[in-house]
Amino acid sequence: MSTAMNFSAKSFKPRPPDKGAFPLDHFGECSAFKERFMQCLRDSGFESGACRERAMAYLQCRMDRQLMANEPLEKLGFKDLMDEKSEAERGKL
């Protein structure tokens, strides 16, 4: 039995995932947002729920600078924060 590969077989073409892969922030465009988020995590004992507003700001920065695909923040799990924000803005009127 031969263990050689059959090179005439259809070749596999890798494809990046739809979500989860995005360019690195080589120029540090969002590093201030990232640092605020990381500091919040350290201060809260790594309770991510306490830092959701900072996470949302970091992701918004990445989307604004095309470092990740534009997605509505509601689809990224921030619907409740977006609702609170819009209620607060209505209260100011």
Task: Name the shape in a single word.
Answer: extended
Oligomer: single chain
Distance N to C terminus: 79 Å
What is the count of DSSP helices, taking H or I runs of 4+ residues?
Answer: 3
Helix content: 40-55%
The total of beta strands comes to 0
Biggest sheet overview: none
Strand content: under 5%
H/E topology pattern: HHH
- Report low-confidence residues grouped into runs of 5 or more: none
Any idea what the radius of gyration is?
21 Å
Content-based structural category: mainly alpha
* Average pLDDT score: 82
What does this protein structure show overall?
The chain is an all-alpha fold. It has a domain at 30-86. The protein is 43% helix and 0% strand. α1 packs antiparallel against α2. It is extended and about 60 Å long. It starts with 30 loop residues before the first helix and ends with a helix. Belongs to the COX19 family.
Secondary structure layout:
Elements: H1 31-43, H2 52-64, H3 79-92
Helix pairs in contact: 1-2
Write a concise keyword list for the protein shown above.
single chain, 93 residues, mainly alpha, extended, cytoplasm, Cytochrome c oxidase assembly protein COX19, COX19
